[in-house]
Amino acid sequence: MRIAVCLKYVPDPSTIEVDPLTGMIDIGRVLYMMNPADESALELALRLRPPDGTVTVFSVGPIEADRLLQDALAAGADAALRVWDDALGSLKPIVTTTLLAAALRVKALPDLVLCGGHSVDRGSGTVPALLAEHLDWPVVTDVTQFEIQSGRLRARRRLARGARAESEVTLPAILGLETGLVHLRQASLPNLMRVKYTPIPLYGLEELGLSPQDLHFPAMTLHEVMPPRPRARMMFTPDVGGSVQERVAQIMSAGVAGKAGKILESGTPEQQADAIIAFLCQRGFLEQPT
Q: Where is the Electron transfer flavoprotein alpha/beta-subunit N-terminal domain (predicted)?
């Protein structure tokens, strides 16, 4: 089985600081790391790899992303590939997935692609679905658990409000994994030293068979703003057991009971207690005494 893992080089949130004078993020203090959800994807790929299988890691980013790919090689990945072109600037998910899909096609397509479901910088969660659209493969997102049997993949997904769902697809497929499923193994010191100066293959637009026009996607244009559809108003239904006068009064008041009270200024405590009980019985808070 050939497994591909998509990795992203993201800023470490704990190192982001705001300049008190300019109010801008101090870029000089920002450190970068592997996206946590991608770490889970890489560890699961290494655990899932059979003896005759391979794990290849891909990343779209500048030369600084080589460190990310070297760490993945030290952890146990078999090969790495970085995609970048100096003409590229800030990438949107649709451009990133176009580059990743082209990179996956450079060699034989894998049997399974694992991606982190969300990144800590953008968190759009659209990369797995967009990549599946480019490859015309099935995709399962928000995956918390999965297993593969006889060429079919069964996954458990996280839904809103704590709900869960199970999906089954046929390989090849793409999975978008949740953060924190597993922790990436610690690479040994010999492996870290071995990959420290390992060159990472770089593929530009020419090697991918793409042109700048292939990455130009027209921006969405807002043509009209329409107000939200008004919510249907619930009509009050009077109690059918009441008299005509009572039902008319309920309709006129829309079911809202008017405030009514009674002040007891005289009588013994026993008489006042009896008056309070009678008032509560009249208003329906207590049952009439037999």
A: 22-212
